[in-house]
Each structure stands twice: as structure tokens, then as C-alpha cells.
Design goal:
The structure is a homodimer of 214-residue chains.
Chain A lengths: L4 E8 L4 E3 L14 H9 L16 H7 L5 E7 H4 L24 E5 L7 E3 L2 E6 L3 H12 L3 E6 L1 H9 L5 E6 L8 E2 L11 E7 L5 E7 L1
Parallel strand pairs in A: 1-7, 1-8, 3-4, 3-7, 4-6
Antiparallel strand pairs in A: 2-9, 5-6, 8-11, 10-11
């Protein structure tokens, strides 16, 4: 099986915004209410961060249950790992996820400010100051034949799209307008020269956008 | 994790028919053209019987790629296993699937005419003359903590629905009318007293019906 490079369960507003401005420790998604973007995923039975029984088993759950299938590594931007910019004052920050991060694979964090690798349970974070191509090479080797997830945020996904390194992408478009923030696209149709695009409205209110290479 | 009892990728016509009358060796689906019911699944990249590269990676593929996830055993009716009725003249018939059946788990075949178990590659068929409850008990034990798929045909799914043993069910309704044959339902709404139901139209033309227990 070919190793694929996949984006899954990435969420944007109707105007294409995936996170607000002014990310901080209190506001991981900046000045945008992440509940408006993520509610559909949190309602499903299979959502990785679900802590209580219950949840839906319909269309949206097919999407969330697929997020970890055959994934052997993730690549993320520094701003998904934490709210800090510039050199690390120390290494106390260990990500948003506590002692049991939901990745369970090697995770490669792209940053101009590298630091030693960090292992929390069965997830190890590696910090790389390199190009998307080179990061992907390392992630593919670490994934041991499985696929690589490009985990976001917006800037990282844009870099990998611009370098034409993504094979398959799922983006849920939520029924809200945010106006300001980090923008994934002006319109998903920008990508249809390179990708097939299926738009599937969900009963939950989001519209799932499935892209795969032409 | 609770063991669940699931129906996946079962296909019916708009009038609820899953197979035609007069099943035979030449016509596994009886006097109905199975291509009309199955085309959506065969077009996907992840379809279990796909033999050539290619295929779609959109909504329909999310459904087909989920078919084998966490499945530890299947229960099927005798008519899914073969076109013969009554006592077995001999044991030459080994199912429709050749030497590499696509199940890769124990399969329990419900029949009034039992025969010795049959192993083909990593699939073993066991033949049981028993109730849905008892068959499920055996399949759950064999599934070793994983889920049990109720694989069809129509009669078997109806028996398990009537015994209230199914937790989750996906049925694709194809845009054809068949008129005669084995009928799963007059209308999917018959089940909404016991199940949530989401209807999701696919770009391929089928309407996916997702049921899960209330």
C-alpha cells in the first residue's frame, strides 16, 4: 500500500477561517469560539477526546472514527503545539493535551525554535526547523508504512498544500462566519484544479468537504 | 469497549428490495441486477473486492473503508453463502469467494442443514442451526472483544432486527425500483421507534441510511 498524506477533521468557518487572531494560553483558537467549529466532532461517539459514553453514530461519526485509521505519524505547526512565539524560555510547556496526548504516534512539530524531543505516554514530539518536504520525509520514515496526518493549523496546511504534498483532505465547514483570523481559503473551489471535491451536508449543520487528488 | 452488532454496506432498492427472486449459481442476487445496487461501493478506493488501483476517496469511501473496522466475526444466512436449498448433496461448494474470502474472521452461516466447518485462508465458516440469539452468543465469543457484522441477506437481517439484536446499521438505498424480491422494509421509517435515522444523499446517487439505537 502506498503511504498517503492526509488532512482529517480540520474545521473552518463559512468564510474559510480555521482559528482567530491573538492565540493565547486561554484561547488556543484565538479570538474565535472553537465550539462553533468543533461541535459536530465533539458530539460523535468516536471523537478522540470524548470522555463520557454516548454520542452519535451517523455520518459525522464515520468521519471522526476515520481520523486515526492507518495513521503512523503527524506533522503539526508550532501554534498547534502551544501558544508561545519565539525562543523557548524553558521546556516546561508540554502541549495542550496533558500526559496522554491523543496522537499515539510520533508527532513532528515544525518550528524555527527547536528543542529536545518529548515523550508523553505513547506520543513522542520531535521539533524540526525544516521544509515541508524534509519534514514529510522524516514523518514517512517514522510512520513505518502507515499514513501521515497533516494536523494543522491553517498555516501548516497551507504550506503543505502549496508544496502539493497532500493526497487527501477532509475539511468540515461550520455554519458560522468569523470575519477575521487565519484563513485556509477564500473558496474551496481554489483547489479543484488539483483535487476532486465532494461537498456533503451533514444533519449536524456542517458541510463536509472531501478532497482527493485528480 | 462494548461489543457492538453492526450491519454495513447493505444495499436495497428504493422499494426496499435487497435481492431478486430465483437466486441461482448464475444469479447470486436472483432476478435483480446487483450492479444497480452495488455500483456505488465498487467505485470506491477501499472496496474489499477491488482488484485494480484507483477509485474514489469521498463520502462513499468513508463507508466502505469502515466495513471491516473492528469486526471480529460475521453472521450470514445460508443464501449469502450459496444458492443451494435443502440438504447438501456433498461439500464441494465452498462459497462464492474463491480461496481468499474477504472476511478474514470466523463466519457463522445460519442453516437448517449443518456441515463441517470450512477454512479458506484466514476465514473459517461454521454452520449453525440455531436462533439469532444463540448464533450471536457464539459469534461474540469468537470475535474476541471486537464487533460482530450481520452480513445478510435480507432474511437474516430481518431476523436480527425482529429479535432486536442490532446496534448499528448502514443501508445504502439505490436509485432504482425492483418491484419483486426479498424486501428489507416497506419504509425505513418503520425502524425509527427504536433507532435514530440519518439519511445522507451521496454524490454517487445512493442515499446512505445510518441507524443507531435510541
Amino acid at each position: 500500500m502506498t503511504q498517503r498524506v492526509r488532512v482529517h477533521c480540520f474545521n473552518v468557518s463559512q468564510d474559510g477561517i480555521g482559528a482567530g487572531e491573538e492565540q493565547s494560553l486561554q484561547h488556543p483558537f484565538g479570538l474565535a469560539d472553537p465550539r462553533e467549529l468543533w461541535a459536530w466532532a465533539g458530539a460523535t461517539a468516536s471523537w478522540v477526546n470524548r470522555t463520557e459514553p454516548g454520542g452519535t453514530w451517523g455520518l459525522d461519526d464515520y468521519i471522526t472514527r476515520d481520523m486515526t485509521r492507518k495513521i503512523g505519524a503527524e506533522i503539526m505547526g508550532r501554534n498547534k503545539f502551544g501558544p508561545f512565539r519565539g525562543p523557548w524560555p524553558n521546556y516546561e510547556w508540554q502541549g495542550w493535551w496533558g500526559g496522554e496526548p491523543p496522537f499515539h504516534t510520533p508527532v513532528f512539530v515544525l518550528t524555527h525554535h527547536v528543542r529536545p524531543s518529548l515523550t508523553l505516554s505513547d506520543t513522542t514530539f520531535h521539533f524540526l526547523d525544516t521544509t515541508p518536504h524534509e519534514a514529510l520525509k522524516q514523518a514517512k520514515a517514522a510512520a513505518d508504512g502507515r499514513d501521515v496526518r497533516i494536523g494543522g493549523g491553517v498555516t501548516t496546511i497551507r504550506e503543505f498544500l502549496d508544496a502539493d504534498l497532500i493526497d487527501e483532505m477532509h475539511v468540515a465547514v461550520a455554519p458560522v462566519e468569523l470575519g477575521d483570523g487565519l484563513r485556509l481559503w477564500e473558496s474551496p473551489d481554489e483547489l479543484t484544479d488539483r483535487y476532486h471535491l465532494e461537498r456533503v451536508p451533514s444533519p449536524s449543520g456542517v458541510v463536509h468537504h472531501f478532497f482527493w487528488r485528480r
